[in-house]
Specification:
Layout: H1 38-41, H2 47-54, E1 60-64, H3 70-83, E2 92-96, H4 99-111, E3 118-121, H5 122-137, E4 144-145, H6 150-159, H7 166-181, H8 189-196, H9 204-221, E5 223-224, H10 226-239, H11 241-250, E6 253-256, H12 264-274, E7 280-284, H13 299-302, H14 304-307, E8 312-316, E9 318-319, H15 324-335, H16 340-343, E10 349-350, E11 359-365, H17 366-382, E12 390-394, H18 400-409, E13 414-417, H19 426-441, H20 455-463, H21 478-499, H22 505-518, E14 527-531, E15 540-545, H23 561-575, E16 578-589, H24 654-659, H25 671-688, H26 698-707, H27 712-716, H28 723-737
Parallel strand pairs: 1-7, 1-8, 2-3, 2-6, 4-5, 6-7, 9-10, 11-16, 12-14, 12-15, 13-14, 15-16
Helix pairs in contact: 2-3, 5-10, 6-9, 10-11, 10-12, 15-23, 17-18, 19-22, 20-21, 25-26
């Protein structure tokens, strides 16, 4: 077939959606040709994306699942409106939450021939308006913007005679920011924080005083902070109707991306921009709400149809990012979710070719997990997957060090996202200086090391002066992050001493220096190491979700049902970052040789092979105006968040949690089985020469008798039945639950390592 004449472009009929013309939602050429007409803007969109693009009249709500091309849909909507003449570019304001997302949106709009449209963050748009209208509304210049408020917060704390260390200072600053975006004044902070279930880093009354003093300092010095930009813009628009009308004449059409992350303050600003109009398009996914600690709430998204009854609703569920195998896991993860966001979850449908099944791996300990992941990364890279197409995602930044080391040892390049390198963190650098000083002075010349006989105890003594404690602090935030970093150094010292029993503190310091210098890997083409929060909005060919144990995800300080469900959504975000390869892993113990007492995350129950499903979410009582339909969940009721299996009340008492029911709720106890188990336990305890509770506590025995497990997997789900006891007693217990008589009693294994249950 002859090609086109010289100097002429080859033209083929534009592909239609039905004939495979849909482009992957998350991939596009860097320099695409600008569409030559409004209709050309719609080419390549799937039916739902096209519905979004052509819905230019009235309010529009787009529920868009992960990887479904939401940014593509809304940018084509704006471009179609501009190119068709229905929208003036200067009258459109598109709002998102990060400068990166806003820049990407502006770039896409230019490529579609819709230059001139404003795409900004809430803060950027508000600051421009504040700078323009301040002379008219208030007079003079806008107060100077304080880029970093921590210095002022520190001064406010000093005036209140409250001493804050660097980490407490950061946490208190975060509480002030949360208060402002939720429009909470200082005197209301304590009750508001309690109602929101926040773990305050200091006494709430102290924080309220610091907050009030901080606000007074700003007024005295004529400065404003980042949150004030929104608050003052809201104030100007509320008080000056003439200015509000000027803004509304300028911007007549609004688009808000990531609408599930809107705070109450941002929602108020949006309402003032709109006035009594409804030319608004919002896009979001309640299942990706993971920033509630900053004041974000999906309520505005979920209530959209109540506020705008005639709104057009479009669901984007065609997933162009991930394989059917990855999508199946993502859907399964949300099928067990509870709460209002779960009632409106989207069932994704993969549009990609089949790929490998997600892998589930249990490792003996954390170093083994990191080394195993590094080997798998090497295999993928040898198979042609670029390093930049691979990510290792974890719950907290303190988990990064063991993976940094494993990748460095394997000679694999990596880059950290959303966090400093482990050895560049301030607390780690400070700890290194202290350890170096202690080593130089000699252990016995330092009073704090007088009773420290080995390297690990010396490290614990030194770091104990900087915030390390044997038990982690309550709550989250900078104090917890600092403790995790110091705890990682303590664990490293313990591992080092096991490998080199004769080593000195000076030898450990030299080892730390070598590790720090060895991890200066290239960052341009490297495996990404990131927390799950930092991974939001990104994607990779291969994703490793690591450290998926109870206590890490959900994190230990997630106590309420809402907090537990946000942890599930965080894991969902991690799963949906993967295009093709997905690996989920956990370690049974922290260090080599440790007791294998850890359990994989409850969120994997019913998903990983051999596990029983947790109880699915209850059918929604109302659809919130969305008309969501959900299929019935399958599987037996299993442990999820600590809720009574009879009345669904949240459980807090340890004994009730073990039974998975309130003490006063009706029992499903098989009394005959309970008596058989008691007799068996007495026999085992006699053989051990130990109290009966060393075999199983009464509460654990009751839980077994109520659940009557039929498999090892079901027995292992009962609190108090760890891996060792499952191996030691599992066969006998399952035989008793099945109604079989034990024909012989074998003497138990040596129980020297067994410890009583707490």
């Amino acid at each position: 077939m002859a090609g086109p004449a010289c100097g002429q472009r080859s033209r083929s009929p534009p592909p239609t959606w039905q004939h495979g013309g849909v482009t992957a939602a998350t991939h596009s050429s860097l320099f695409p040709q600008v569409p030559d007409s409004a209709d050309a803007v719609l080419e390549g969109l799937d039916p739902e994306q096209r519905e979004v693009a052509t819905a230019l009249d009235g309010p529009v709500c787009v529920l868009a699942g992960a990887g479904t091309g939401k940014t593509r849909a809304i940018t084509h909507r704006i471009a179609y409106g501009v190119r068709s003449g229905m929208l003036q570019p200067s009258s459109v304001l598109a709002v998102t939450f990060t400068n990166r997302a806003a820049g990407e949106m502006r770039g896409r709009l230019r490529q579609l021939g819709a230059g001139g449209v404003q795409a900004r963050t809430f803060h950027s748009a508000a600051l421009r308006q504040l700078q323009y209208f301040w002379p008219k509304a208030v007079g003079g210049d806008v107060p100077r913007l304080v880029e970093r408020k921590v210095q002022l917060v520190a001064e406010a704390a000093a005036r209140c005679r409250v001493r804050l260390d660097r980490n407490e200072l950061r946490d208190v600053t975060g509480e002030i920011e949360w208060s402002k975006v939720t429009q909470t004044v200082p005197e209301d902070y304590a009750p508001a924080a309690a109602k929101a279930g926040r773990e305050a880093p200091r006494d709430p009354a102290e924080i309220a005083r610091i907050y009030g003093t901080y606000e007074q300092l700003k007024r005295d010095r004529g400065v404003i902070d980042f949150e004030d930009v929104l608050l003052l813009t809201v104030g100007v628009l509320q008080d000056r109707h003439d200015i509000a009308e000027t803004v509304r004449r300028q911007y007549q059409h609004f688009v808000v991306d990531e609408y599930q992350d809107v705070s109450p303050l941002q929602q108020r600003l949006l309402e003032l921009w709109l006035g009594d109009r409804d030319s608004l398009c919002v896009v979001g996914d309640a299942s990706q709400t993971i920033y509630s600690f900053t004041g974000a709430t999906p309520d505005h998204l979920l209530n959209f149809r109540h506020r705008h009854p005639r709104a057009t609703l479009v669901r984007l569920v065609r997933d162009y990012r991930s394989t059917p195998q990855v999508v199946r896991l993502a859907n399964g993860l949300l099928s067990q979710a509870r709460g209002r966001a779960a009632e409106h979850r989207l069932e994704l449908v993969s549009q990609r070719e089949a790929g490998p099944e997600p892998g589930y791996t249990a490792y003996a300990d954390e170093p083994a997990e990191a080394e195993g992941i590094a080997r798998r990364v090497r295999e993928l890279m040898d198979a042609g997957v670029p390093a930049s197409g691979i990510a290792i995602l974890y719950r907290i930044n303190a988990q990064s060090e063991v993976y940094e080391q494993a990748l460095a040892d394997a000679g694999l390049p990596y880059q950290l996202r959303g966090a400093e390198r482990f050895f560049e963190r301030p607390e780690v650098r400070e700890a290194g200086l202290l350890l170096r000083g202690a080593a130089r002075a000699g252990g016995h010349s330092d009073p704090q090391l007088a009773d420290a006989d080995d390297v690990p105890s010396q490290v614990r003594a030194v770091l104990g002066t900087r915030g390390w404690t044997p038990e982690p602090p309550a709550g989250s935030g900078a104090v917890r992050d600092r403790w995790e970093s110091l705890a990682a150094l303590v664990r490293l010292a313990e591992d080092f001493a096991r490998a080199r029993p004769d080593a000195t503190l000076g030898d450990l310091v030299a080892e730390l220096d070598e590790r720090a210098s060895a991890q200066h890997a290239p960052t341009v083409e490297g495996v990404t190491l990131a927390s799950l929060h930092a991974a939001k909005g990104l994607e990779w060919d291969a994703v490793f979700l690591v450290g998926l144990t109870e206590g890490m995800i959900p994190i230990t300080y997630a106590k309420t049902d809402e907090q537990i469900e946000e942890e599930r959504r965080l894991l969902y975000v991690g799963v949906t970052r993967a295009r093709r390869h997905l690996s989920l892993s956990w370690s049974l113990s922290r260090a080599p040789g440790g007791r294998p007492s850890r359990r994989p995350s409850r969120f994997l129950n019913g998903l990983r092979p051999g596990s029983a499903a947790t109880r699915p979410a209850a059918a929604p009582g109302g659809d919130g105006g969305f008309g969501v339909e959900r299929g019935a969940g399958g599987g037996r009721k299993r442990r999820g968040p600590a809720r009574c299996r009879v009345c669904a009340k949240t459980l807090t008492d340890a004994g009730e949690i073990k039974l998975m029911r309130c003490e006063d709720c009706p029992s499903e106890l098989d009394e005959a089985l309970y008596e058989r188990l008691r007799d068996w336990r007495a026999g085992q305890a006699g053989l051990l020469g130990q109290p009966a509770y060393c075999v199983f506590t009464d509460k654990t025995l009751l839980a077994i008798a109520e659940a009557a497990p039929g498999t090892e997997s079901e027995l292992s789900c009962i609190s108090g039945v760890g891996g060792r006891k499952l191996q030691k007693y599992g066969a006998d217990v399952l035989a008793l639950c099945a109604g079989r008589e034990l024909t012989s009693e074998d003497a138990p294994e040596d129980a020297s390592e067994e410890s009583p249950e707490k």
